[in-house]
Automatic annotation (TrEMBL):
NCBIfam families: PRK06170.1. Signal peptide: none annotated. This is Amidase. Residues 24-464 form the Amidase domain. It comes from the Bacteria. InterPro entries: Amidase_CS (IPR020556), Amidase_dom (IPR023631), AS_sf (IPR036928), FAAH2 (IPR052739). GO terms for cellular component: endomembrane system.
Length: 483
């Protein structure tokens, strides 16, 4: 029997029943990687010897009667997580030899849960792209079409899952880095509520692995089913034992509903800053139709929805104001000159990003205050609705574009070009206020490319969009292996 595309839940049941050993699962996964990853390039740092040792240990533990959530299940880890004995480079050549001394908190949790880590997955330079390529490890291709990107920055993890290289993976998300690759590769991912999952040890190479509270950024699970997302989230979530964990324990509320007919959902398919491509719009509407067919209350408009234009602008400001903190002084001064030359009438996202790069602390505080007003608006919204269904990006996976200047790249939406970074507006919708968002595949575009949508839920009610994802998976189908 071939196990490579079975779910983590199915593998756990088979392991408990003695139908397969962790050693057998691990050898099958390694053989598939060695055979197929030459053209995908998802696993940038294999760790097969230690994986085999971990699998033997898992089988021995099970023989002693032990059972843990991920005991013996092969998984992968995004390259950006510190893992003792393996390099952490973030794709930056000058850090090519950096080797952290200890595991990140999430790698430790995977190991404690019994997972067998096959290796690390590819990322873009500095994690700062919607594609995954760098000078050290090269380019990760989309398993559905090798001429197209797998997404970024967790593109290696999404491509690995779609290719059957392990049952689960962990990634991170600041600008859709969990969600865009899942959408492009036809798998599932979950961006947790801000602060729910500790990120200590998911830091740039040579930076101290401190338990800091990140702004906007989260770490989270990737899988091939919604139930597997929940399984992995339960391993990852909970306060860092070095900080809040000394006083608090996690108690996530249950999902609001268990039946599709009980959900109240707002469906969005258009954004004021850019159009949605026809393939993605069709995916959104497939989900809307499935919801309506299942008896859910589906709305297309609500006066309770926080303003999308202001929300996208705030997200651009908060995201890009933090991107220049370590810029050289001369580069920063050039940005100040360019920002000062902008017309006051220019309210484009490009202008918002440039102005944000030279924000004063006062400017940032004003933007943060407006964010808090948006968060309050979302609380009022989720008193009336349970979830939002909307795009992740306006298109399926696009062709590789390695222009070294991202400002000279464009995104083609049904034949019309738009600024490359404008496609982040949908990613920013839940990120700016810190809301959870679950990605589900909805089927294929006319070109045969995967299309996903995100299900946005209330803050710290992560089980609600995950429950909706599981119900929709039963209704419209889920992951399918690339042809």
């Amino acid at each position: 029997m071939e196990w490579s595309f079975r779910t983590a839940e199915e593998l756990a049941a088979a392991l408990r029943a003695g139908e397969v050993t962790s050693g057998e699962l691990t050898e099958e996964a390694i053989a598939r990687i060695e055979r197929d990853d030459k053209v995908i390039n998802a696993i940038c740092v294999p760790d097969f010897d230690r994986a085999r040792a971990a699998a033997r240990a898992a089988d021995q533990a099970r023989a002693r009667g032990e059972d843990r959530p991920l005991l013996g299940i092969p998984v992968t880890v995004k390259e950006s997580y510190n893992m003792a004995g393996l390099p952490t480079t973030w794709g930056m050549p000058h850090h090519g030899n950096y080797m952290p001394a200890e595991d990140s908190v999430q790698v430790s949790r995977l190991k404690d849960a019994g997972a067998v880590i096959l290796g690390k997955t590819n990322v873009p330079l500095g994690l700062q792209d919607i594609q995954s390529f760098n000078e050290i490890y090269g380019t990760t291709n989309n398993p559905w079409d090798h001429t197209r990107t797998s997404g970024g920055s967790s593109g290696g993890s999404a491509a690995a899952l779609a290719s059957g290289f392990g049952a689960l993976s962990i990634g991170s998300d600041l600008a859709g880095s969990l969600r865009t690759p899942a959408h492009f590769c036809g798998v599932y991912s979950h961006k947790p509520s801000l602060g729910l999952v500790p990120s200590r040890g998911m830091v740039p190479p040579s930076a101290p692995a401190l338990p800091v509270d990140l702004d906007l950024a989260v770490v989270g699970p990737m899988a091939r089913t919604a139930r597997d997302l929940t399984l992995l989230l339960d391993v990852m979530a909970g306060p860092d034992p070095l900080t809040y964990g000394t006083a608090y324990q996690l108690a996530l509320p249950p999902a609001r509903h268990e039946r599709l007919s009980d959900f109240r959902v707002l469906v969005l398919e258009e954004h004021p800053f850019l159009p949605t491509g026809s393939a993605v719009r069709a995916g959104v509407n497939r989900v809307a139709d499935a919801l309506a067919d299942g008896g859910a209350r589906v709305e297309r408009h609500s006066p309770l929805l926080p303003d999308l234009t202001e929300g996208a602008t705030l997200y651009a400001q908060l995201l890009f104001s933090g991107s220049v903190a370590r810029f050289p002084v001369d580069a920063y001064e050039r940005l100040r000159t360019r920002a000062a030359a902008l017309s006051p009438e220019d309210q484009s996202l490009d202008a918002a990003r440039l102005r944000a790069m030279v924000f004063s602390h006062r400017d940032w505080m004003e933007a943060n205050d407006r964010r808090e007003l948006h968060r309050h608006g979302w609380r009022q919204f989720f008193a009336e609705f349970d979830a939002v269904v909307c795009p992740i990006t306006p298109t399926p996976a696009f062709p590789h574009d390695h222009n070294p200047n991202p400002l000279e790249r464009w995104i083609d939406i049904d034949g019309v070009d738009f600024p490359y970074f404008d496609q982040l507006v949908w990613a920013g919708l839940p990120t700016m206020p810190g809301l959870p968002a679950t990605v589900i595949p909805t089927g294929l575009s006319p070109e045969g490319l995967p299309v996903g949508v995100q299900l946005i839920g209330p803050m710290f009610e992560d089980r609600t969009p995950l429950s909706l994802a599981e119900l929709l998976e039963q209704k419209i189908g889920g992951f399918r292996p690339p042809r």
